[in-house]
Amino acid sequence: MKQYKSSTMSALTAGLLAAAALFAGSAHALDTAKAKQLAQANACMGCHAVDKKLVGPAYKDMAAKYKGMDAAKLAVSIKAGGAGKWGPIPMPAQGRLSDAEAKVLAEWVLAGAPN
Ligand code: HEC
Is the pLDDT of residue 102 over 60? Predict the structure, then answer.
């Protein structure tokens, strides 16, 4: 009986872990690690910070302004760059980014650039 109980418990634990892993790996979960890596690798962090304005607006301010926006739409803006929405300084186009990379970044920005 004792044996039976403990194996039930470990089966349950394994099930929960598997569920957590599935959730973390799901295509629609926010991929924070990937987004941060892309932001470092593509110099986003040279012009943007999470909660203060640098050359470009803070990620938190963008998240507030664009709350509820479709990430695909913001991804297009990231790739295209632009000017005049936040101030006179333009953001250069980010042509090296794939659509998928731009989308990961857009989702992360819209979530307020969590760590
Ligand atoms: C050379 C500096 C610079 C770099 C590099 C840069 N940005 Fe920007 N970014 C800006 C500026 C300046 C603006 C504001 C443009 C405006 O006023 O329309 C901006 C605007 C944005 C916006 C808001 C766009 C909108 O439609 O309002 C997002 C999102 C953004 N940047 C994300 C990124 C990401 C992600 C990267 C890296 C792939 C990046 N930026 C790289 C300077 C930069």
Answer: yes
Backbone angles phi, psi at 41, to 5 degrees: -70, -25
Q: Which of 48, 85, 96 has the most ligand 1 atoms within 8 A of CB, as the residue to mutate?
A: 48
Q: How far is CA 64 from CA 18, 68, 113, in A?
A: 34, 9, 11
| Distance from Cα 95 to the centre of ligand 1, integer Å | 13
**pLDDT (tens digit per residue) in 23-68:** 554 456 899 999 999 999 999 999 999 999 999 999 999 999 999 9
Residue 110 has pLDDT above 80, yes or no: yes
Q: Is 77 in the pocket of ligand 1 (CB under 6 A)?
A: yes
- Tell me the C-alpha distance between 53 and 89, whole Å: 12
